[in-house]
Automatic annotation (TrEMBL):
<keyword id="KW-1133">Transmembrane helix</keyword>
<comment type="similarity">
    <text>Belongs to the ABC-2 integral membrane protein family.</text>
</comment>
<dbReference type="Pfam" id="PF01061">
    <property type="entry name" value="ABC2_membrane"/>
</dbReference>
<keyword id="KW-0046">Antibiotic resistance</keyword>
<feature type="transmembrane region" description="Helical">
    <location>
        <begin position="113"/>
        <end position="139"/>
    </location>
</feature>
<dbReference type="GO" id="GO:0140359">
    <property type="term" value="F:ABC-type transporter activity"/>
</dbReference>
<feature type="transmembrane region" description="Helical">
    <location>
        <begin position="151"/>
        <end position="170"/>
    </location>
</feature>
<dbReference type="GO" id="GO:0046677">
    <property type="term" value="P:response to antibiotic"/>
</dbReference>
<keyword id="KW-0472">Membrane</keyword>
<dbReference type="InterPro" id="IPR051784">
    <property type="entry name" value="Nod_factor_ABC_transporter"/>
</dbReference>
<feature type="transmembrane region" description="Helical">
    <location>
        <begin position="67"/>
        <end position="92"/>
    </location>
</feature>
<dbReference type="GO" id="GO:0043190">
    <property type="term" value="C:ATP-binding cassette (ABC) transporter complex"/>
</dbReference>
<feature type="transmembrane region" description="Helical">
    <location>
        <begin position="37"/>
        <end position="55"/>
    </location>
</feature>
<keyword id="KW-0813">Transport</keyword>
<feature type="domain" description="ABC transmembrane type-2">
    <location>
        <begin position="35"/>
        <end position="269"/>
    </location>
</feature>
<keyword id="KW-0812">Transmembrane</keyword>
<keyword id="KW-1003">Cell membrane</keyword>
Length: 274
């Protein structure tokens, strides 16, 4: 592909190289923002260390609360690196004119989203690795084995995809970049409290369980509990089983819904701007 500049034909980079370059830019920008790195990567680890030290009691069957908490905090880490990260960063870039500037360049629009997805994938893998290492080395939480790794992988991938798409869609709800964090963070915290992240899900009031079941975090945490906990504890779930088929169905449904919402709601400029 070529473009004409001042009467001279100039070869344009391939789409693949543009995707690769944009992905590198997104990764560099993320790791240069100390606040984002600390909140996204360090916060879940701090929670694991604090809860593991304070609430390391037996919940039954020789399973410690820390082992139970591992599934929830991994799910929360995925939520933070995808939905929260996307919603806040995109709203900020829309507000400071970055998106408007990119829209005026020859770069394919898809490259921006590919870069964001690559960033989420890299950060998600990193945070999962850190949490598993801390859980194993500091608290003796057993790692998944055999087929559990496959379950872990598809739950994490589907959950991350659903939350990433939702984050892109939700970014349009914020009036500007300054209000994005104040709007998104409380919502994420409430979802964590009612989805079985900080408590055993069976201890959450039924009406809160019902609300949580409409959102992907609850299903992501439930799918991950099937990986970290013995099957006997499935009896404590609302349906008495891990419901992995329903977990896949709900998370897949949220991927489709999130994609539709992205197409319908995404904006390259703040509301009311020229």
């Amino acid at each position: 592909m070529t473009a004409t500049v001042s009467g001279t034909e100039v070869a344009l980079p391939s789409v693949t190289s543009v995707y690769r370059s944009r992905s590198a830019v997104e990764l560099k920008e993320f790791f240069r923002q100390r606040e984002s790195v600390v909140f996204t990567l360090a916060f879940p680890v701090i929670l694991l260390v604090v809860f593991g030290a304070v609430l390391d009691y037996d919940i039954g069957g020789g399973v410690s609360f820390t082992q139970y908490f591992m599934a929830g905090i991994v799910a929360a880490g995925i939520l933070g690196s995808s939905l929260q990260n996307m919603a806040i960063s995109i709203a900020t870039e829309r507000s400071d004119g970055t998106l408007k500037h990119l829209l005026g360049t020859p770069m394919p629009k898809s490259a921006y989203f590919v870069g964001k997805v690559v960033q989420v994938l890299a950060v998600t893998v990193l945070i999962i690795a850190i949490l598993l290492a801390v859980g194993r080395l500091a608290y003796g939480v057993p790692l998944p084995s055999g087929r559990d790794w496959f379950t872990f992988a598809w739950v994490a991938v589907l959950g991350s995809a659903a939350c990433t798409l939702l984050g892109i869609a939700v970014s349009s709800l914020a009036k500007n970049g300054r209000s994005a964090s104040a709007m998104i963070t409380p919502i994420a915290l409430v979802l964590q409290f009612i989805s079985g992240v900080f408590f055993q899900f069976s201890q959450v009031p039924v009406w809160m369980q019902t609300i949580a079941s409409f959102f992907p975090l609850k299903w992501m945490a439930q799918g991950l509990r099937s990986v970290f906990l013995p099957d006997v504890l499935a009896a404590q779930e609302p349906a008495g089983t891990w419901e992995l088929g329903r977990v896949a169905l709900v998370l897949g449904g949220w991927c489709v819904a999130g994609l539709v919402l992205c197409v319908l709601t995404f904006r390259w400029q703040d509301r009311g701007s020229d």
